[in-house]
Each structure stands twice: as C-alpha cells, then as structure tokens.
Amino acid sequence: MAAKPVLYYFNGRGKMESIRWLLAAAGVEVFRTGQVPMVEIDGMKLVQTRAILNYIAGKYNLYGKDLKERALIDMYVGGTDDLMGFLLSFPFLSAEDKVKQCAFVVEKATSRYFPAYEKVLKDHGQDFLVGNRLSWADIHLLEAILMLEEKKSDALSGFPLLQAFKKRISSIPTIKKFLAPGSKRKPISDDKYVETVRRVLRMYYDVKPH
Amino acid sequence: MSGKPVLHYANTRGRMESVRWLLAAAGVEFEEKFLEKKEDLQKLKSDGSLLFQQVPMVEIDGMKMVQTRAILNYIAGKYNLYGKDLKERALIDMYVEGLADLYELIMMNVVQPADKKEEHLANALDKAANRYFPVFEKVLKDHGHDFLVGNKLSRADVHLLETILAVEESKPDALAKFPLLQSFKARMSNMPNIKKFLQPGSPKKPPLQEKEIPNLLAIFS
Q1: B79 to each of B26, B107, B155, how far by Cα in Å?
Q2: Is there a contact between A50 and B78 if contact means CB atoms under 8 Å apart?
Q3: CA distances (Å), A155 to each of A84, A136, A198, in order?
Q4: Nearest to B77 among A50, A51, A70 (CB)
Q5: Which residues 92-121 of B are in CB contact (within 8 Å) with A?
Q6: In A, which residues are within 8 Å of B68 by CB distance?
Q7: A203 touches chain B (CB under 8 A)
Q8: Hey, are the CB atoms on B52 and A67 less than 8 Å from each other?
Q9: Which residues does B105 contact at the CB level (< 8 Å), separation at least 6?
Q10: Inter-chain CB pairs, A–B, below 8 Å
Q11: pLDDT of A148-169, one tens digit each?
C-alpha cells in the first residue's frame, strides 16, 4: 500500500482536476498513473469523483465542523461543480461551438453563480465561505474562478469581494505552491489530450455544446 | 411552521424523487409545494429562496437547501443513514454516485426523440445488467450481509432499491440473473417505512408520461 495517494487518470484536467486541487490544498503529495478517476488512498480504491472529493475533504478537515456547515459546503460545491461542468466537454467541441459554449458559461458565471458567492461573502463579511475557516468550498470556488478567467480574463469585474477572495485564497501556502509552475496542476486541455482521451475511451468524437 | 421539511418542485419525480425516498425511508413526514406554472418558479426566485435560481429546494431545519446532493447528504447524515465513519461514507458515496448515473440514464429515456428511444433504453438496460447490477450483487455476495455497507441500513440501500424498481418499470425481469439483489429487493420493500412509501397514496411519484412534458418545459424554461 502506497503511503501517498495514487491518482489514476489521463494526464489532463477532466474530472480529476478538482481532486488534485483539494489534495494540494490539504498539502498531500500524490503519484499519478493511468485511466479513470480512481484514487488509491488509505487502503481503498476509490472511484466516483464525488466520493473521492468527499473523503479527502472529510479526512483533512475541509468539510466543516458539523452537519449544517457541511450542508452549506455541499451547496456551494454543487454550484461550482455545475459551473465547471459546463466546461468539461469544452476541449472536444468544434471551434465554432467553443465560441458559443464560452459565451454560455461566462453568462452563467456572471449572472447566476458569481453573484451568489459574492452575496455569501457580503452577508457574513468573513474571509471564507463557511465557518470562518478554509474549507473545500473555498478551494473549489477558486478553481472555478481561475477556470472562468481563462475564458474571460475580467470575469470577476463587478465582484469586488470575489476578487479579494481570489487573492487571499491564492496566497495560502499550499495553494500558492499548487499555482506555481512545476506543480501537479494541469494546464488547459490541448489537442494532444483530446486525442488521447478519444483514443483510449473511444468516445467524445461528436460532442455538442450544452 | 409545522417543523416538517417542505419540498419545492414540480409534481413529478425528476431530481426530487430520491429526496422523497430518503425522507420516507428515514420515517420523516414532509410537505410538498408543487410548481404548477412558470410564475410559481419565478416567485421562488424573486423571493431570494433559491441560491442558484434552481429547484429542487427543501426547507429543512431553518435552511433553504438547494443542490440535490447537498440535500441528500444532509438528510442521510441527520438520520444516521450515512455510515459510521469516513470510510463507510466513502463506500456509500461510491455506490450512490454509480447508481445516480444509472438512474439518470433510465429517467432520460422518456425525453429522447422517438427514433432514438429504443436504442437509448437498450443501452441503459445493458448497463444495468452488465455494469451496475453485477457490482452490487458481488458486494452482497462478498460480505453476506443484508445491507450494502456496515451491516446496517444506509442511503445506499435505499437508492439501490429505488433504482432497481425504476429499471424494472422498463424491464420487469431485470433481476433474473441476480438472486441476491432479488432477496435484497424483497427484504428492503418489506421494511415498514419503505413498505408504506410503496403503497398507493404515498408521496412516491409515478414515471413521467410524455404528455406531462410540455407543461414541465413551460415551468422550467
């Protein structure tokens, strides 16, 4: 049994990226190989992205202090998951569809999701989304923000609290390290990634936008 | 305020049905407010009741919860249907997420275009028979217990029963090759709370009919 969690996936973002983020934020080192989202951790072979993320968050105290805090975290993570989910198929779209999907995602982010998180921060005035301490919800939101900014660099204009939030969370040592070159963080999926996934899974040849 | 959870959704299974199942299995009575027209959803939005402008929404313990997973996680945790520790929860999560994929496949059948329906259904049933049911049959075989995790009822068992029944609506003999799942189904269906939920007049909703779709689209689009 490896002491470090072992990640099985493609050498790209996809559904594994949120897992890399969370492990990195918790300061956990990983190895990686292989195929589907699968993580060997603590003697278990965990599949299903959500199961993996829930476990890591729970284990490293990033899941709130009680059921109600967990409920809030789950709600917020659900939102950022939906938002980032719109971008999962993005690398596989035609150039024309990419433009449409980009506009769609940016619209959803700026009219539905970012306002919700901006309001959460405004209402309690704290540095973190839940319980006045770092949780999975903060890490997931940062991931989503950076992903959106790759599509529209000023996606956060009009959201001053989210801008400050982004700076703050980015400068947490474990996260700062993950954001630096040479970390396990994956770049935007390129043509090579697309070709590999299609070849291995024999899927995603004819992907339509949302 | 009655203190009972209040479910806000359309009068259909959709994304709320697994919440109804879980509350019922936990023996928790609840109320439902059905969205019947677009204005009903609009009102919830303008009230500020919907964090992401979406339903399902459940009023529970002073919260207006959205996001189906969050709602189910909370109910499961509150009513001790989520395992006794992190590792049991991991197993439960794996099973539940896998079942959700299958359930969604089955549920999406009714909204497929007419010329794609047969193929879609065949694919869903094939996955049930060759990917999902064998996994759960093996889990039950390997540990020999009555329940999937920790020798005790959990949300994984409830969701498995829900999914089995949904598959059987399309293929009544879907469990023919899975003897342990058959006895699992019989056992679970006989548990008092679940037995009650399976009877006529309960909050359990029937499968979606094509003729309902236009009205649902009118509410949600």
Answers
A1: 6, 27, 10
A2: no
A3: 14, 22, 31
A4: A70
A5: 93-94, 97-98
A6: 78
A7: no
A8: no
A9: B120, B123, B124, B127
A10: 68
A11: 999 999 999 999 999 999 999 9
CA A184 to chain CA mean position, Å: 13
Reading the block at residue A186, the tokens are: 């994956």
Tell me which DSSP letter residue A94 carries.
Answer: -
For B171, counting Cβ atoms within 10 Å of its Cβ (0-12 exposed, 13-18 middle, 19+ buried), the class is: middle
Q: What confidence tier does A1 reach under pLDDT thresholds 50, 70, 90?
A: very low
- Contact present, A22 and A53 (Cβ < 8 Å): yes
pLDDT score recorded for residue B195: 98
Report pLDDT for A30.
57
Separation CA A191–CA A23 (nearest Å): 27
The answer to whether B135 faces chain A, any CB pair under 8 Å, is: no
pLDDT for B2: 60
What dihedral do alpha carbons B118, B120, B122, B127 form, nearest 10°? Answer: -170
Tell me the C-alpha to C-alpha distance, in Å, between residue A191 and each of A91, A151, A173, A202, B141: 8, 17, 32, 15, 44
* Rounded average pLDDT over A31-45: 71
* A55 near B CB under 8 A: yes
Asked if B61's CB is within 8 angstroms of A113's CB, the reply is no
The DSSP bridge partners found for residue A45 are: A40
**According to the model, what pLDDT value does residue A139 have?**
97
Cβ proximity of B111 and B105 under 8 Å: no
Q: Which residue of B has its CA nearest to A116?
A: B51
CB A129, CB A166: distance < 8 Å: no
Strand (E) or helix (H) holding B39:
helix B38-46
Rounded distance between C-alpha atoms, residue B80 and residue A199, angstroms: 44
Answer yes or no: do A74 and B73 touch at CB < 8 A. yes
**pTM for the full model?**
0.91
pLDDT tens-place string over residues A103-118: 999 999 999 999 999 9
Distance CA B188, CA B156 (A): 12
Contact B139, B199 (CB under 8 A): no
Indicate yes or no: CB of B74 within 8 angstroms of CB of A74. yes
pLDDT above 50: residue A193 = yes
Q: Are B168 and B102 in contact (CB under 8 A)?
A: no
